[in-house]
Give the backbone structure.
Amino acid sequence: MQAKTLLVLDDDIDSANIIAKEAEGYGFKVSIIESAVLFVDQVSAINPSHLAIHIEMPELDGTALLADLAQLQCTSSIILSSSFGTPALIAAQLAAIKHRLNVRGVLPRPFNRSFNHVILKNMLTDLVSVDLDLYTSTTDNERQSYVVDEAAIFEAISNNQFLLYYQPVLNLQNGKLVGFEALIRWRHPELGIRLPETFIPFTEKTGQIDPITHQVILMGFAFLAKLKPELTLSINISAKSIKNDHLLEVFNQACQKFGIDPKRVVLELTETATMNNPDEAEYVLSRLRDLGFRLSIDDFGTGYSSMAQLARLPFTELKIDKSFVTTMESSSKSRKVIGSTIALAQSLGLTTVAEGIENSLAAIGLRELGCQFGQGYYFARPMDQDAAFLWMQNWHSQY
Ligand code: C2E
Ligand code: MG
Ligand code: MG
């Protein structure tokens, strides 16, 4: 294989040039080809380290193309470019997993300059992932200059400025959709969409997290009520909210209001959340479990916890933290942590979910290690409700 070589297949020369320019900036030698007919021959002739494929070209059968690459035993890092959630893209993603091709990720079309820049850098230079949000305009500068105060949060609660994005969770063994995780966003009147890390910790300190959790539950349940009954919704619960019966009451009432079976709801808590006050956590979590809710340990491996205490709590699921998943290709330590975490979960009778799956190799590796479910940018980014419905239609049409 020729290091730092990129072959671009794109029928739109402007797009191809944008990719080429970016790659040349990282020292790549780039060739562009506009027709799929000669593409596979070119791959076999040049044996490039990277491929960028526009998957929605007219007349192109992306699935067949990937099968041909697999037949060549292609080990190039592949970047697919496509508009969001289309059947062609989904079929290609599934084909990549089936053929064990190294798809690094998806470059969304139409191109957005700053977004492309970060994503391409990530995929071409094999950097550990940068946390990005397709629908977020947050830049590092904005993050730093952004100050939250109690009055602004109060206004956000009163004026319904919080909303939920949804990220699909898939069965890694058969590709079927099992449900979504709800992830909060703040539609700030001046700054646009804000990520939870910029305001959730603050609201935990001021005590404003409880009304926010309440709104999250209502919004999430309204979404869940519109989904097929076999699908689940995971909701993140702050440590500060598992302290009294109020949470039980809110969940109970929401189930009645929306006609939701508690079995369809997964509450995600971090290890640290449950360890701060294990007796209280045990009381509240056992009651929630008795009502039928499922309980998940989020970000497993990043907090501090004692196995004895964890085993005592009625968890049903364990989430492998994205810091291990995004580094599993480069770090044998991460792979070992993931392997032993899955073994631990199995011995405790817990299902396993991996977060932060950013490419097909991670999906393949996790499946081989026995991880049952997964989510990540490789399949879909967190998206608003309308986009989630659109994505779901396309995903289902593949089965
Ligand atoms: P989390 O529950 O561990 O959620 C996973 C985070 O990983 C999300 O960040 C998600 O956007 C991001 N992610 C998903 N796929 C990938 C991927 O392939 N690669 C990478 N690098 N990241 C990926 P987000 O949405 O910014 O949420 C951050 C954290 O904020 C969540 O971590 C959760 O702890 C907290 N949070 C989110 N929504 C709520 C909420 O409604 N209530 C509370 N209390 N906390 C929330
Ligand atoms: Mg979570
Ligand atoms: Mg997590």
In short: Residues 302 and 321 are 7 Å apart (CA to CA).
